[in-house]
Design goal:
about 400 residues; alpha/beta; six-stranded mixed sheet; four-stranded antiparallel sheet; about 20% strand
């Protein structure tokens, strides 16, 4: 009797094998509540036990400055590299960004002190349940009312209400954006164009209160990575500049201050070929039953036509499951990808199918997303290169 043929197709990646962020003890969402609790701000809890309280705290968030990128570039970032041992209260360990590891999600986690399932910005683009349209949460397009979208107060607001001097020092471009309003509002916004001006003013603002909570931000490293890649000379030059900025700020800290250097995500370069860049717009199997494609190349929200949810999940798992963690919405929620709980208003913003890259691959959409599909450097998923961010510390 003939033996039945053996199934030699590799099993899809198990949803439970994805490295879930350290929500509640070591994620970006835990940073500001910990600092604020150390200054006695009501309604905040010290969630990162390794951190020692300080009267004056400054968070310098460098967009795209992943933990692994600092480790790999000691020559370009000698000051930052020398601080690696100071990370996370001297343990020498990184924080996790949260899922997805992308700017809008991470900035909301930082500012609100909440994981994505609560603050409700769970991706680069997500479906607005009220309209059925995709909403870009970084650019806030199409416009929707910010307060209902993210109703929680920021930590800066809580700190200001408690008498702490709170200020944000950033590019003037960001002063009135909806993302700033929902994620980082509270205290005084001070716009400065150059990095040097921001560092100097951040130090002045730290000294302006007996208790201070200051936030400053630099975006250009991320832009260089997206356009040219983290292996490029342009990106390395930006990293050298960031290294000098951090040292400039550290050397101006007033007494009783702590400076924390962190990031919203890391980044990886993805080769430009069909093996590494799977084009949704050219793949009839992946398109079948899909109403909307959200998220970004390494962290997709897939919204199915009503009734096709299981078919879409099965197809995406069969086609991509060796290189991506492919989960249903409820599987991702149960696994804790977006935090310990999901607010009701956020549930339908999540894809029916949620796809996170493990390998150096993307699901691009060359026709719908031509600019994003052309990026060299990418991020969003739960791999160490994207997910791990520093929490470098300097004290005066």
């Amino acid at each position: 009797m003939a033996q039945p043929a053996t199934w030699d197709h590799p099993e899809p990646l198990a949803v439970a094998s994805a490295p879930v962020p350290e929500y509640g003890s070591g994620s970006l969402a835990d940073l500001l509540p910990t600092l604020a609790a150390g200054m006695g701000v009501p309604g905040t809890t010290a969630a990162i036990p390794e951190l020692t309280p300080a009267d004056r705290n400054c968070v310098f968030l460098v967009d795209g400055l992943g933990w692994e990128q600092i480790k790999d570039h000691a020559d370009e970032a000698p000051y930052l590299h020398a601080l690696l041992g100071s990370s996370r209260g001297g343990t020498g360990r990184p924080l996790t960004a949260g899922y997805p590891a992308t700017t809008a999600t991470s900035l909301a986690s930082v500012g609100t002190g909440l994981p994505p399932g609560a603050h409700g910005l769970p991706g680069y683009t997500v479906r607005n349940p009220a309209t059925g349209e995709l909403m870009n949460q970084l650019r806030w397009q199409p416009w929707t009312s910010p307060k209902p979208w993210q109703p929680y107060p920021t930590i800066f607001q809580l700190a200001q209400d408690a008498g702490v001097h709170a200020a944000q020092v950033s590019s003037p471009t960001f002063q009135n954006t909806p993302l700033t309003k929902v994620a980082l509002s509270g205290g005084t916004f001070l716009g400065r164009l150059t990095g040097e001006e921001r560092m100097d003013l951040a130090a002045e603002q730290l000294a302006a209160g007996d208790r201070s909570l200051i936030y400053t931000y630099y975006a250009e490293l991320d832009g260089a990575g997206h356009r040219y890649g983290v292996a490029s000379d342009t990106w390395r030059g930006q990293l050298m500049y960031v290294d000098r900025l951090v040292q400039r700020l550290a050397e101006q800290l007033p007494p009783r201050s702590a400076l924390y250097v962190t990031a919203d995500h890391g980044m990886i370069d993805v080769p430009f070929d069909e093996e590494h860049r799977i084009d949704f717009d050219a793949d009839w199997e992946l398109r079948a039953g899909v109403a909307l494609l959200g998220g970004e190349g390494r962290a997709r929200h897939v919204y199915a036509v009503r009734g096709a949810e299981n078919d879409v999940l099965t197809c995406w798992r069969e086609v991509l499951g060796e290189q991506f963690w492919v989960a249903s919405r409820d599987e991702a929620i149960t696994a804790g990808w977006f935090g310990p709980k999901i607010d009701e208003r956020v549930y339908d913003r999540l894809g029916d199918v949620i796809v996170a890259a493990r390998d150096d691959v993307l699901v691009i959409a060359s026709e719908r997303e031509p600019k994003e599909s052309a990026m060299v450097g990418n991020h969003g998923s739960m791999t160490p290169a994207e997910q791990l961010v520093p929490l470098l510390e300097v004290r005066s």
